[in-house]
Amino acid sequence: MSRPQTEEQAVDSEGDSSLHRRDEEGTQSSHRMLGFSDALLSIIATVMILPVTHTEISPEQFDKSIQKLLATRIAVYLMTFLIVTVAWAAHTRLFQVVGKIDDTLALLNLACMMTITLLPYTFSLMVTFPDVPLGIFLFCVCVIAIGSVQALIVGYAFHFPHLLNLQIQCSTYRAQSRRHILRLVLRGPALCFVAAVFSLFFFPLSYVLMVTVIFLPHISKATTWCKDKLMGHRESPAHNVEPFSIDLHAPLSKERVEAFSDGVYAIVATLLILDICEDNVPDPKDVQEKFSGSLVAALGAYGPQFLAYFGSFATVGLLWFAHHSLFLHVRKATQTMGLLNILSLAFVGGLPLAYQQTSAFARQPRDELERVRVSCAIIFFASIFQFAIWTAALLHQTETLQPAVRFGGQEHAFMFAKLALYPCASLLAFAATCLLSRFSTAIFHLMQIAVPFAFLLLRLLVRLTLAALQVLWNLRPEHPQPGQGEPEAQSQLLPAPC
Amino acid sequence: MSRPQTEEQAVDSEGDSSLHRRDEEGTQSSHRMLGFSDALLSIIATVMILPVTHTEISPEQFDKSIQKLLATRIAVYLMTFLIVTVAWAAHTRLFQVVGKIDDTLALLNLACMMTITLLPYTFSLMVTFPDVPLGIFLFCVCVIAIGSVQALIVGYAFHFPHLLNLQIQCSTYRAQSRRHILRLVLRGPALCFVAAVFSLFFFPLSYVLMVTVIFLPHISKATTWCKDKLMGHRESPAHNVEPFSIDLHAPLSKERVEAFSDGVYAIVATLLILDICEDNVPDPKDVQEKFSGSLVAALGAYGPQFLAYFGSFATVGLLWFAHHSLFLHVRKATQTMGLLNILSLAFVGGLPLAYQQTSAFARQPRDELERVRVSCAIIFFASIFQFAIWTAALLHQTETLQPAVRFGGQEHAFMFAKLALYPCASLLAFAATCLLSRFSTAIFHLMQIAVPFAFLLLRLLVRLTLAALQVLWNLRPEHPQPGQGEPEAQSQLLPAPC
C-alpha cells in the first residue's frame, strides 16, 4: 500500500507560496485516495472466498446439492475477482490521466467505490437464479452507474485542467485525449446498456455481452497485437506518441500493482484468524462435560486447526515475501505482468480454502489425500504465476528489471531460487503424496515447516550450490575478475529459466 | 496506505553504482513492508467486530445469556483493538530506528506479525473462561514471543549498522541507543514474564500486570509529564537531544498513521458487503413458495438492509473523507493526536454494529428507537474524536498544521465545517429521535442521505454563511485586503473551537 509522495512533498515545500493556489483551486495530491481505493478494491475482490470456505462439508452429506453449492460459490468468487480487477485496472488508467484531486473528485470516487462493492451481490443473484434475468439486469445497471460516475470524473477533470496530469495538461491534443479516455470509460457501459435491454426479452445474449465486457481489455489488446503483426509495425507511431499515452497498452503504475497485491495478501492472511477466533474457542459446557474441566485438553483437540493456521499464514506471508522481493527489482509492470499477477492473486485468495481443507483433516481423516492435493495445487498455481511474472519480465528485461536480476546479474540466481522454491516444494509434496499416500498429511506439514527455513537460509544455499557447481564444472580461470565469479556461474547455470 | 518512496527512488537513481552495495548488503527500502504490516495490523484490529455483529438477537430471546455473550464479544473487540494499536505503535517506533531492511528482517517481521495475529484468540479464551488462567498465560507467552522477535530485529539491525536510520548510524551514542531501544522493546515482555509466573498460582495479579502492559506507553508518558511539571523543564535537554530521539514521546510517523487509518476504514467499509452477499440472497425455494416466483418481490423484502448498507458505506466513506482532508493539512502527528485517532477508529470499527442495528429494523420494529440511538451515538463518538484531533493539533498549530488551516488561515472555517458536520448531524438526529420518537427511522435515514449532499455543497454553504455573517456583523472596512475577508470573519467567528 505504497504511493510516492513526491508531489505532495513538492507542494508542502512550496510552503506559503502554494497556499493561494491551494485555496483557489482546492487541489490535493491523489496518492492517499488511490491507496484507499486500492485497499477497498483488493478487499472486495478477495472477501468472496469467505462464503466458499464457510460451506460446511461432511463426508456423510457430500452429495450433489453441496457440490453444486460449492461450485456456485467458487464461480461467484472467481467472477468477482475478475470483474473487480478489471474495475481496478480501469480505475488505475483513469487516475493516470487525472493527476490531482479536489474534494468533489474525492466524493465522486467514493460513489464509484460504493457502486463497485455491489457487483459481488449481482453475481450472487446471477449464480443462484441463472434463469431469472434480474441478476444480469442489476449487473448492467451497476456497470452503467460506474461508467457514468467515471465519465463525470473525466468531464470534471477536463473542465478544470489543473487537475489533469502534467503531460496531458500541456498537450495540444487535449480535446482528443478527452474523447479517447471517454470512449475507453464508456465502452463497457454502452455494451452493458445493450445487454440490459436484451435481458428484458432474450437474456442469454446478455450473458455473452457481459463476458465481452469483462474480457474487453484483453480482447482489445489481442486485436491490436494481431493487427500489429499483420500490418507490420504500428500504423502511425508519430500520431500515437502523445495523445494515446493514456491507452490500455501503457504499463500499469507499479505502485498501484504493489498496493493492490498487498491488500489481497493482507486480507487473505487475516481472514484465517477470524475463523480461529470464532470457531475454535471451546464452549464452557463442553469443556466441563467432555474434558472434565481441563481447558488444555479441550484446546489440544484443536491442535490440527492451529497447525494449519500456522502453515497457511506462513504460506501467505512467504508468497508476499517473494512478491515483494521480485517487485523491488521491477522497474515497471507491463500488461502481461499485471495479468499474471492477478492470476497469482486469484489463487492466493484461494488459500483460505486450502486452510479449510487441511484443518478439516481432524474431522474427516478419510479423504485427507484429496485435500492435501487440492492444497498443494493451489499453492503451486499461486507460486508458478509469480514465477511467470519474472519470466515475462525477463523477456523485456532492459525495460522492466533492475540490472541486478537480469541474466548475468548478481542477484539473478538468488531471485530464481526465491521464486522457484514454492513451485518446487509444492510439486514435490504433491508427488510425494502420490508415492507415500499414507503419510500425506505429515508430508504437507513438513513442507509448510521446511519452506520458511529454506527462505531464511536461501542465500547461503544458493552460494553453496553455485560454489559446488563451480568446483564440479571446473571453470576456466581466464577471466578471474574478483567478485564477478558468481554472475558467470549463473549465466552458465541458468541458460533460460522456465 | 502511503509511504514516501524517496529512499528507494534514490537507490534506483544511483543505478549501477548502487548495485555492488545492494549485493553486498542486500538492503532494501522498508516502505512496502511497513505498508503491508499496517494493512495486516489494521485488519486484525478491526475484524473482531464481526463476531459482535454476528450475534443473533431477537426480542423473544434477548435474555441474560445473549446480553452476556454480546458484552463478552464487545469486550474482546475493544481489548483486541487496544492491544493491536499498542503493538502497532511499538512497531512504528521500532522501524523509526531501523531504516532499511534485508531479507532476514523481512522474514523476522512476518514472524512478528504472525504472533500478533494470535492475540485476539487469547482474549477470546480469557473472556470465555475468566476463571481459568490458561488464557492469560497464553497472552503472556504471545507478548514474550513478540518481544523476543523484536529484540532479535534490534540486535540484528545494530549488528549490521547500515540497516539503522542515518541519524543513529552516525550517532556517537549508538551503544546507548541500542540499550535504550532494547529496554523499550523488552519492558512489556518482562512484565508479562512475571504475569505468566503469577498466572500459575495467583492469576488475578496477572490481569493487573496485563492492564499495566497495555497502558504502559500512556502511563510512562503521564509520569514523564508529571515529572516535567514538578521539576520544571526536562532535567538534561542537552543529553536528551540525540540518543533519545527514538523515545516514546517523539511524534508518530504521519504516513504510518494514515496507512493504519486507511486500513481500518477500508476493512470496515467492505465488511458490510460480505453480510449482504452471504445473507441477503434469497433462497430459490422461498422465492417460489412465498413470493410466487417473483424475484423482484423477494428482493423488495430486503429493501431496508440495502438502505442501511448504503447509509453505512456513505458514513464510513465520508468519515474517511474528513480524516483525509484533515491529514492533508497535518504536518506531523503528536502522541495525543495519535491517541485520539485510535479512539476515533475504535468507534469507526463499531459502525458495522450500527449497520446491523439499523438493518434489523425490518425484523424488529419494536425497539427501533434504541437502535437508532445506538447508531447515532457510535457515529457521534467516531466523528467527535476526529474533531478532537483537530483541536489537539490547533493547540500546537505551528508545529502540527499547515498555515492554511491555522487560526485565520484561508481554509480554517472550511475545515471546521467539514469536521463539525457529522458530530452536529448525529447529535441533531439523536435529539430529533427524543422529540419525534415515532419517526426515528425516517430521521436516521434522512440524516444518512442529507450528509453526503452537505459535504458536496459544503464549500458553497461555508462561503454563504460567512458572507451572511459578514453582512450581519457589518464589518469595519478599515483593512479591505482583497481576498482576505474570509480569515478575518473566521477569526471573529471561531474564537476557540470546542
UniProtKB/TrEMBL annotation, chains A, B:
Keywords: Ion channel, Ion transport, Membrane, Potassium, Potassium channel, Potassium transport, Transmembrane, Transmembrane helix, Transport
Catalytic activity, reaction form: K(+)(in) = K(+)(out); H(+)(in) = H(+)(out)
UniProt superkingdom: Eukaryota
InterPro entries: TMEM175-like
One Pfam match: TMEM175
Subcellular locations according to the entry: Membrane
Transmembrane segments: 74-95, 107-129, 135-160, 306-323, 335-355, 376-395, 415-437, 449-473
Protein name, UniProt field: Endosomal/lysosomal proton channel TMEM175
Main location group: membrane
Naturally occurring in which organism (per UniProt): Cricetulus griseus
GO MF entries: potassium channel activity; proton channel activity
Its membrane topology: Multi-pass membrane protein
Family to which the UniProt record says this protein belongs: Belongs to the TMEM175 family.
GO CC field: membrane
Region (Disordered): 1-30
